[in-house]
Design brief:
The chain is of the alpha+beta class. It has helices at about 35-45, 50-65, 75-80, 105-110, 155-160, 160-175, 210-220, 255-285, 315-325, 330-350, 355-360, 385, 415-430, 435-450, 450-465, 525-545; strands at about 20-25, 75, 90-95, 120-125, 135-140, 140-145, 150, 185-190, 200-205, 225, 305-315, 365-375, 400-410, 470-475, 480, 485-495, 500-510, 510-520. The strands form 4 sheets. It has a 7-stranded mixed beta sheet, sandwiched between helices. A 6-stranded mixed beta sheet has the order 11-18-17-14-12-13, sandwiched between helices. The radius of gyration is 24 Å and the shape is globular. It is a single-pass membrane protein. GO terms for molecular function: diacylglycerol O-acyltransferase activity; long-chain-alcohol O-fatty-acyltransferase activity. Its main location: membrane. It catalyses: an acyl-CoA + a 1,2-diacyl-sn-glycerol = a triacyl-sn-glycerol + CoA; a long chain fatty alcohol + a fatty acyl-CoA = a long-chain alcohol wax ester + CoA.
């Protein structure tokens, strides 16, 4: 069935039908689709095609070769966790476009890219023979009419307040089911102008398909550079870290004994911080709970309730200005801005208008669950590289993520830059810990020894005892086209986990998109919360300019 095709999830959808089925279960020996000779002759020799199109097809062919799915590849423990009742997680990404949607071009683009990818052309099949067998990915035929959804929305609503119409439609998707007999992704087409874009598409996919790095890398593979449509976009610069998260390069002998001693001491600090963080993580999974605040889920079952997705465009130049002024990283600034924004919201909601009393109060610690990319080579990668199945590949596709608990301190400071200093201290402290590595490998071990239900119960305890989820992703560094449509913004988020508030930052060229996913009933003032974040960044930027 087609979920949530209108703002009213119960209303039927209206699709512009044009049957296109792509059989991905029958493939040639090289992993590519068996294309009729007539179609190949119509298209002409490959040398006549643009370089970008050849790169696109080679990337998808490499993806098909890189994952062995003939007999069905077993799902990873992380992918199975995202199937559990309390973690039935979906990624939803609103993509603003600079032109009206050309549905035929979008269909052709999807046929050439997304439906050739193993995860997006497979269903999740349970092992009915072996009771303890793992679900598997099995290739199937993809009918694009099942995945491209053009909803019938009220023309009066889309004309009077198009931004609200998009927001309401996105919210309706958070309670709409997805048909698990098909590949778990959808493209929703909202072909009307809003305040930011000429049209929009919404990509909804199950989180078991991959983590944020995998899915954003796939999105980039589906786009072209706006400056040169014949080539793929440039990937963002790789982060400074090279190798595993725990790697600490040994100084050369010429650096002296002091440098060698400091290098050895860094491993002692790493071990100590890891022990402390692991004990805190285990305690949180069992009993250690955040104080009750307006930011925390008001009651159990928040993962099943309707979510609202709101976003605001911030200036990446402002973020980088603060970063340079404070000699920190972009992520340090984002942690500090979040600290400041949550503090403004908290003190307004608690109706404490006495500034002196607010500033003298001891800070309130609320904690977030933060996903960490554990690949040996961090950052985004070319799709063909991610689909390489060799064991030495440090950028594999999948859910290669670990959890850490990141604290935020609710407080009022006379100097707005104190939030940045605090954010830098928190981020630097977490970089000297293997908490994320522990949660990833211990989670896999618990699944093997005790089963998925036990692992899910511990993970559920960690989420319900913390306040929010927090994440950030770097996006394309140049303007890109999505199947011929200029992308104006990218606003991804996630729902289905037991938090009432999820904060995500997504960069694109010179902008930073702040995206909030909130419990619709608990946060009726979600746009005011966006204002708090934006005002916090303004004040921090202003303070940095007068240092």
């Amino acid at each position: 069935m087609d979920p949530g095709a209108t703002a009213d999830p119960t209303a039927p959808s209206a699709l512009r039908k044009r049957p296109i089925s792509v059989d991905t279960s029958r493939r040639g020996g090289d992993g590519a689709s068996r294309e009729p000779a007539a179609r190949r002759s119509e298209r002409g020799p490959s040398d006549a095609r643009p370089e970008g199109e050849r790169e696109e097809e080679s990337s998808m062919a490499a993806a098909a070769r890189g994952v062995e799915l003939e007999a069905g590849e077993p799902m990873s423990p992380a992918g199975r966790l995202f199937r559990e009742t309390h973690f039935n997680c979906y990624i939803v990404a609103a993509i603003g476009l600079g032109a009206a949607v050309d549905l035929a071009a979008a269909r052709a683009g999807l046929e050439a890219t997304l439906v050739r990818h193993p995860r997006f052309s497979s269903t999740q099949v349970k092992d009915d023979v072996n009771k303890h067998g793992r679900p598997r990915w099995v290739r199937t035929t993809v009918n694009l009419d099942d995945h491209i959804i053009v909803p019938c929305l009220d023309p009066a609503a889309t004309t009077a307040n198009p931004d609200q119409a998009v927001e309401d439609y996105l919210s309706s998707l958070s309670t709409a089911p997805m048909d698990h007999s098909r590949p778990l992704w959808e493209l929703h087409v909202l072909d009307f102008p809003t305040s930011e874009a000429a049209s929009a598409v919404v990509v909804r996919m199950h989180h078991s398909l991959g983590d944020g790095v995998s899915l954003l890398s796939l999105l980039i593979a589906c786009t072209r550079s706006a400056a040169d449509p014949a080539r793929l976009p440039e990937l963002p610069p790789a982060p400074r870290r090279a190798g595993p998260v725990h790697a600490r390069p040994r100084p050369p002998l010429s650096a002296g004994l002091v440098a060698l001693a400091l290098w050895l001491w860094s491993y002692v600090v790493l071990a100590w911080h890891t022990v402390v963080d692991v004990l805190g993580f285990v305690a949180t999974a069992w009993f250690l709970r955040d104080p009750r605040t307006p930011l925390m889920a008001a009651s159990e079952g928040v993962e099943f309730r309707r979510k609202r997705f709101v976003h605001r465009t911030l200036s990446l130049d402002d973020v980088k200005f603060v970063k340079n002024a404070m000699k920190c990283t972009v992520n340090d600034v984002l942690v500090g801005v979040t600290n400041a924004g949550l503090s403004r919201y908290y003190f307004r909601k608690t109706s404490d208008t006495n500034n002196e009393r607010k500033k003298s109060q001891k800070s309130i610690c609320v904690r977030s669950a933060l996903l960490v990319n554990l690949r040996k080579t961090p950052g985004l990668h070319a799709l063909a590289e991610m689909m390489d199945s060799s064991k030495s590949n440090g950028a594999k596709w999948g859910n290669l993520i670990g959890y850490i608990i990141l604290p935020f301190h609710i407080a009022m400071h006379n100097d707005p830059l104190e939030y940045i200093r605090q954010g830098k201290r928190i981020a630097e402290r977490k970089k000297t810990s293997l908490e994320a590595v522990f949660t990833y490998w211990s989670g896999n071990l618990i699944v093997k020894l005790f089963g998925m239900k036990v692992a899910a119960a511990l993970c559920y305890g960690m989420f319900t005892n913390t306040t929010l989820s927090f994440s950030s992703m770097v996006g394309p560094v140049e303007k890109v086209d999505f199947y011929g449509h200029p992308i104006v913004y990218i606003a991804p988020s996630v729902y289905g986990h037991p938090h009432a508030l999820t904060v995500h930052y997504q960069s694109y060229v010179n902008s930073m998109k702040l995206v909030l996913a909130v419990d619709d009933a608990q946060f009726p003032d979600s746009h005011q919360l966006l204002d708090d974040f934006a005002e916090s960044l303004r004040l921090i930027c202003q303070a940095a300019s007068t240092r």
